[in-house]
Amino acid sequence: MKDIITLLQPRFYSFKNKGFSESNRGGLFKLLLFGTIGTLFWGGLFAVSLRVLGYFKEIAELGDILAYKLLSMALVTIFFLLIFSSVLTSLSKLYLSRDLSLVHSMPVSSYKIFIARWIESTIDSSWMVILYAIPVFISYGIVYQSGPFYYGNVVITLIFLSIIASGISAVPVIIAVNIFSASRIRGILIFFGLCFFLVLFFVFRLLRPERLVDPEVFSTALVYLKALKTPAPVYLPSTWAFDSMKAVLNGHIAEGLFHSALSLSFAGVTVLMVIIIADAIYFKGLSKTRTAQVRLIKYNASGRLFLGFLSRPVRAFTLKEVRIFFRDQTQWSQLFLIAALVVIYIYNFNVLPLEKAPIKIVYLQNLLSFLNMGLAGFVLTAVTARFAYPAVSSEREAFWIVKSVPIPLRKYLWIKFFIYFVPLLILTEILIIATNIMLKVTPFMMALSIINIFFLVPGVVSMGIGFGAAYPDFKSENPAQAVTSFGGLLFMMVCAGYIGIVIVIEAGPVYNLFMAGIKGRVLNAFEWIWIIGSFTIALIINIIAIVLPMKFGENRLSKLN
Amino acid sequence: MIELKDLNKKYGNLLAVNNLNLIVPKGEIFGFIGPNGAGKTTTINMIGGILAPTSGDVMICGINMEAHPEKAKSKIGFIPERPYLFEKLTGMEFLKFIADLYDVDEDLFFEKSQEKLEMFSLFDWSDKLIESYSHGMKQRLVMAAALVHDPEVIIVDEPMVGLDPLAIKMVKNLFQRLAKEGITIFMSTHTLKVADDICDRIGIIHKGSLIATGTAEDLKRDVDAIDADLEQIFIRLTEE
Predict the structure, then answer these.
(1) Of the candidates A21, A209, A517, B195, which lies 20 to 30 Å from B61 by C-alpha distance?
(2) Phi-psi region for residue A311, left (φ > 0), alpha (ψ -120 to 50) or beta?
(3) Cα Rg for chain B, rounded, in angstroms?
(4) Residue-wise pLDDT tens digits, A143-156
(5) How far apart are CA A381 and CA A485, in angstroms?
(6) Cα separation, A5 vs A546, whole angstroms
(7) Residues of chain A positioned with their CB less than 8 A from the CB of B101
(8) A170, A118 in Cβ contact below 8 A?
(9) What is the pTM of this model?
């Protein structure tokens, strides 16, 4: 046990020393920002849960059925989220961490190393899920007026559930790593995990739950009620947690303890089983991951065919970027996610019940189209944050090559800019054009949206590249996570402000132009001055947004030691 | 040739390189030695244009690095201490990338790259991803890349780290041959035997200052120890 505690100490010390690190730039700001967002989200969840459960409680008989069904569904969801999170975390913690070579060179049994890593993995994969599940359970406690025993029981039940999920996830990971390499598995798992998540999301979206509040489809509620009473599978650990919580909520403490004991005994068995399996094959699997990867797809296109029109340095950087991007399997799932995001985004516009709105359709369509520019801008910001912002950091420790070659940093950054600008412009224009077609907007709004996006995209991409260059993290194991750093947050806030300002500046003139078009009215001189002035200011802001961040990034990057 | 004029580098309050003045003429192999943290890598990075000096000038073949960084860098073949590379490229793709950036004649690239890869025993690995290379192979690939554009100056930080004895012998012979062809080599090393074997002159840096320069014989005279080897000279000059 002493060895395991010792093995866990570096993690504890790293956490403790984080605040003193010089590289922890903007740590307090980040903490405050994330803390506020997190607290708001937590509070929101709590308020919604309390409101919904309070509403259910007022409905005689059906209310309790609905509340318990909700509890059961929440626990099943939490359980599967814990499993998904545990699989990815345990794979990284047990097989891919950089410090594993050092730890395994020490005179400690590999099963002890496994236990220490597994404890870390269990905590890392479950703390956030549990933290955001707690407001839901507190709401149940308040609405059902439960005593302190209920809250204590919730805590231990969730801990048991996390241990079970982590144990259940670790077993297939340990076995799979003995068959395939760990880094390959991570790519495959992320890919299939996202597939699974997206299928669930699509099914949920295609069911259109918003129709349940539509009285016209109320006849399906009886069928729905039948489904509500269907119990969850009895062998599912989340069902034991549900049974325990439900019993305590109803005041049956002994019954609740029995179900918690079931969870406890299974958690114990799971831990034992995992340790036995790990003792037998963990080290063997780890040794296997230390061997080199084989390329999945081999292609050696020189790129001259498609990129022949570019100068040699530009072509060299573009080819390098494209090759690295497509050879990194973790990027594939991200592309897949973006494709799904586009489909969902467009689909949501397709099912908007515009005809039921009390406002005239032509106004609503064009109003939505205008607001959609801002919305598409925010989607663009998120995608830019994921891809363009880490573009400089993704050079990692090979950045010395960029600094030693006879290419100015400015040129390097502009190459990066254009590599991301072209696909992001295409993506955003697709979003805008497709949604405008679905909204059946006027040609004026269509043209305005296309032109506006054409000027917004370079500004956002420039901010992504510029802020990414100004606040690079070349030592990160995962440069994609750089966006959660101080610079990443700054980028997102500045970007949101930029998009918001451009939209607000254009709102008045666009409304005037649109209404004049609809009513066949001629604009007066003052209106023309206002319109031209506003669009000129928007254009100037766009140009500043393109030039300044790149300059800022270049200046800071060139001074980097 | 390389010329360093009043070169200084400060990291906050720490003076990493203190008023360095040095001329390395064409065709000379200059060995730069010093204890850990003495300022070797900082100096190497400033000569390579990777790090901007706090003050002072770096001249490469008469070109000021600060005023014309691209022109100066095009003369250099830079070999860092740790061979961090683009792991998802193959060896050949990496060489092509470097050749494109240094504007190597496209018609000659294949011939040149093949020659360098064979020279560093990497030809059979040219189609493999760099992530599958060993440390020594990556080091050899960096060296091949540094030579692909026929540089006039080679800046190399710890060239022998990670290389096997055969590769060390090959690199030593290669550097001597290149120097004879008129290429200037500035080499930092901890391997004093290597410095003793191939360097025309040696500079010892300690706490950011160049405390001695000259041939091995000059250094022996400086410390009044004619029979001493380079290791003893080094210890005597750098001990507190």
Answers:
(1) B195
(2) beta
(3) 18
(4) 998 889 999 999 99
(5) 16
(6) 52
(7) 312-313, 316-317, 405-407
(8) yes
(9) 0.72
By the 8 A CB rule, do B214 and B201 touch? yes
> Quick one: how many helices (H) and strands (E) in chain A?
19, 0
Number of helices (H), then strands (E), belonging to chain B: the values are: 9, 10
- Which stretches of chain A drop beneath a pLDDT of 50? 212-213, 215, 218
What are the CA-CA distances from residue A539 to residues A502, A507, A550, A554 (Å)? 9, 14, 17, 23
CA angle A88, A93, A99 (to 5 degrees): 145
Q: Which tokens in the block code for residue B138?
A: 């990556």
Average pLDDT of B138-143? 92
ipTM associated with this complex: 0.82
In the predicted structure, residue B179 carries a pLDDT above the cut 80? yes
CA distances from A338 to A331, A341, A431, A531 (A): 11, 5, 11, 35
Task: Report how far residue B81's alpha carbon sits from residue A402's, in angstroms, rounded to the nearest whole number.
Answer: 16
3-state secondary structure labels for all residues of A316-367: HHHHHHHHHHHHCHHHHHHHHHHHHHHHHHHHHHHCCCHHHCCCCHHHHHHH
CB atoms within 10 A of CB B141: 25
B119 in Cβ contact with B79 (< 8 Å): no
- What is residue B90's DSSP assignment? B
Nearest to B65 by CA among B149, B154, B5, B125: B5
> Residues 30-49, chain B: which have Cβ within 8 Å of A?
48-49
The one-letter amino acid code at A318 reads T
Q: Decide if B100 and A316 are in contact by the 8 Å CB cutoff.
A: yes
pLDDT at residue A212, rounded to an integer: 47
Tokens coding B146: 């540094």
Phi, then psi, of B145 in degrees rounded to 5 = -65, -35
Cβ neighbour number for residue A513 with a 10 Å cutoff: 19
Q: Which of A490, A509, A487, A505 is nearest to A541 (CA)?
A: A505
For residue A472, what are the contacts with CB-CB under 8 A and spacing of at least 6? A392, A393, A399, A482, A487, A557, A560
Nearest-angstrom CA–CA distance, A516 and A530: 14
C-beta neighbour count of A258 within 10 angstroms: 14
Of B76, B86, B132, nearest to A292 by CB-CB distance is B132
CB within 8 Å: B93 and A323: yes
Q: Which two tokens stand for residue B91?
A: 């060896």
